[in-house]
Specification:
This protein has two domains: 90 residues, Winged helix-like DNA-binding domain superfamily/Winged helix DNA-binding domain (Arc Repressor Mutant, subunit A, Orthogonal Bundle); 42 residues. Helices cover 66% and strands 6% of the residues. The protein is built from seven helices and two strands, in the order αααααββαα. Strands 1-2 form a two-stranded antiparallel ribbon. It starts with a helix and ends in a 6-residue tail after the last helix. This is MarR family winged helix-turn-helix transcriptional regulator. InterPro entries: ArsR-like_HTH (IPR011991), HTH_MarR-typ (IPR000835), MarR/SlyA-like (IPR039422), WH-like_DNA-bd_sf (IPR036388), WH_DNA-bd_sf (IPR036390).
Length: 170
Amino acid sequence: MAKSEKVTRENASGGRRGLLMSELSVESRRYMASYALFNQAVADHLALHPTDVQCLNLLGLEDGPVTTGRIAELTGLTTGSATRLVDRLEKAGYVVRERDTADRRRVLVATVPEKVAEFGRMWGKLSGGWYELFEGLDDDGLALLIGHMKRTVEFSGAQVERIRGGELDG
């Protein structure tokens, strides 16, 4: 039996919703794979690791310099892995380490404005057509997508914790 036949039969009793859930499952996997491959291409272009690219993305959402511990929180990495990530970004010129003026014992990681601007220009070139993808949606449709993305981020974070916590072992 072909995979598509199996999916159709399994969901025949679920009606339209079952079919839509199956299609959503397939398209979600395609979406995640396409984004992972896109992220890898961006990382290759910048001679960075894919996680480094996403860390730069997340640092752009922060208000100023952060600790390596904060980078670990943002990325879900251990502090040791976050330190190695910062080492790579520093070597590539995207961040610098600086002493916290309020607490000289703390070291903060700050982005380098020129490199961040270069990173932003690259995203600008890649984002042409982004808004056109959503022109056919009304405000309710956009709100639905935003809600979905927020729920997906929360769900993914919980799944990462399960994986790293060893819940899938055994």
